[in-house]
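Ex. 9. Protein: MHYT domain-containing protein.
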Amino acid sequence: MLSQYNLSIVFVSYVISVLGSFAALQLVTAIPAAATRAQRRTAILCAGLALGGGAIWSMHFVGMLALQTEMRMAYDVWGTAVSLVIAIAACTFGMWVCGSGRFSIDRLLPAAVFMGAGVAGMHYYGMAAMLMPAEVSYNLNIILISVIIAVVASFAALWMAFNMQGGLQKFASALVMGVAVCGMHYTGMAAISYRMTGVMPEAGWAGSVSETSVEIFAGVVVLSVLVLAIGVARWYRKRPVFAS
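Predicted structure tokens for MHYT domain-containing protein:
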């Protein structure tokens, strides 16, 4: 099967990962500033949503659109939804471990391992949700490399999230995080081989959606995350007192 990447869409996927990462960094600011436990939990959940849903999940499916092939594709609704939940849950857990107490390397390491495994799980579960007239096989060595990249990227993302405070520093950190997120995705894609079968598999009980529908939803997620980040940033600036 002939396939190649549309470099313009690859660049768009990187921009999405940077925007989602920057939004997450903005939202992380609200975690230590929260005056109550409820506010802290909300801040952690929102940061996990921004990083998992905006920077990682949305980037993944836009990155899939960049792969130009000669076969038609669709997505199983249930599998696609589960992949989104995996990404958000993994990132939220990582934020919770690092942000629920004093930030330290003892918290950072296990959080990064769990979060990296979750990000990789989202990627491969999302791949399994693809419906196409082909059989898919994987190179286990490249899969292992992609998981290592995901863990290292998670380590860097969590460290930068809780240590970079200035606006310019956050933007530079988001650029780095975007490279890490895309690196994991496209390395994971390199692990895959396709063999055309000519038979389109059936969707699960929830049905299927087209590539275009998934990409539109991914765009909505990114825009929602950015609006949320702007709102939290304004809330942070307007609060007269912050409890640690």
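Check your answer against this statement. The beta strands are 3-5, 67-69, 74-76, 130-131, 134-138, 192-196, 208-210.
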